[in-house]
Amino acid sequence: MKTIAVFGGSGRTGQHFIQQALSQGYAIKALVRNPAKLSLKDPHLEIIQGVVLDRMAIEKTVIGSSVVVSLFGHVKGSPARLQTNGTSLIVDAMKKYEVDKIISLSGGGLPFPEKDEPKFADKLIRTIMRIAIPKVLDDAIEHHQVLVKSGLQWIIVRGPRLSNAAPKGSYRVGWVGVNASTQIARADLADFVLKQVEDDQFLYQMPFVSY
Ligand SMILES: NC(=O)c1ccc[n+]([C@@H]2O[C@H](COP(=O)([O-])OP(=O)(O)OC[C@H]3O[C@@H](n4cnc5c(N)ncnc54)[C@H](OP(=O)(O)O)[C@@H]3O)[C@@H](O)[C@H]2O)c1
C-alpha cells in the first residue's frame, strides 16, 4: 500500500483528496492544525497535529511516505511567505527521508510562460490578483522556485476559481488561456491531483485544470 503525505488535508480541496485517496486504496498521513476539522475516520488515515512551519511535525508526516501532496494555502492571518517557507521545510524533510515526488496546488495567477497563452480575460484576472492579493501571488511564485531548485520531482497543479459543486467527473487539462475555462469543483480538482501520484506526464510542469 502506497502512503501519501498530505498537507492542507483539512481544507476544502484537501478533504475531497483524502476521501478519494483512501477509497482508491492509498494510506494517508495528514498534517493538520485542527484534527476535529477532519471528520473522516479510517484505519489507513494517520493524523499528525501541527502546522506546516514546524519542521518536526513535517518530518513526522513525510517519513515512511512515497509521495507528498501539498494542498495547504493562505487562510485569514497567514504569514506572507507561508507557502514558500512551508514548502522549503517539506522539501528538506523529503530529502532527509528520501521521498522524491511532490504534487503542489496553486492557481492560474502563477505563470507558466512555457505553455500559457493568457487571453485578455486571463491578463485582467492576473492584474486584479496582483492588486488584491500580491503576497499570495508572490508566495506562489517563490514556492515554485523552491521546487525548481529542490532537485525533486514536482508537479504544480493549477486551478481557476474553485467551487463546492458536485463533481462532474470530467474536466479539461490545459494551460492558462489554452483549453481552459474559469471554474472547477474542488472534488474534480482533487481527482486530478490524485491522478498525478501515479502519472508522470506533467513532471516539472504546471497543468491548469478546469471545465
Ligand atoms: N480558492 C480558490 O478559488 C483557489 C483558486 C485556485 C487555486 N487555489 C489553491 O488551492 C488551494 C486549496 O484551496 P481550498 O479552497 O481547498 O483551500 P482552503 O479550504 O482554504 O484550505 C487551506 C488549507 O491550508 C491549511 N493551512 C493554512 N495554513 C496552515 C498552516 N500554517 N499549517 C498547516 N495547514 C495550514 C488550512 O488548514 P486549516 O483547515 O487548519 O485552516 C487548510 O487545510 C489554495 O490554498 C490555493 O493555493 C485556490
Task: Give a quick set of tags describing it.
211 residues; alpha/beta; Rossmann fold; six-stranded parallel β-sheet; two-stranded parallel ribbon; 10 strands; 36% helix; globular; binds NADP nicotinamide-adenine-dinucleotide phosphate
Characterise the protein shown here.
With 211 residues, the chain is α/β, with parallel strands linked by helices. The chain has a single domain (3-210), classed as 3-Layer(aba) Sandwich (Rossmann fold). The radius of gyration is 16 Å and the shape is globular. The chain is 36% helix and 22% strand. A six-stranded parallel β-sheet has the order 3-2-1-4-5-6, sandwiched between helices. A two-stranded parallel sheet has the order 7-9. The protein has a two-stranded antiparallel ribbon with strand order 8-10. Helix 1 crosses helix 6 and helix 3 packs parallel to helix 5. Strand 4 (67-70), helix 3 and strand 5 (101-107) form a beta-alpha-beta unit. It starts with a strand and ends with a strand. NADP nicotinamide-adenine-dinucleotide phosphate binds next to helix 1, strand 5 and strand 7.
H and E string:
EHEEHEHEHHEEEEHE
Task: Summarize the biggest pleated sheet.
Answer: 6 strands, parallel
Strand order of the largest sheet: 3-2-1-4-5-6
CATH architecture: 3-Layer(aba) Sandwich
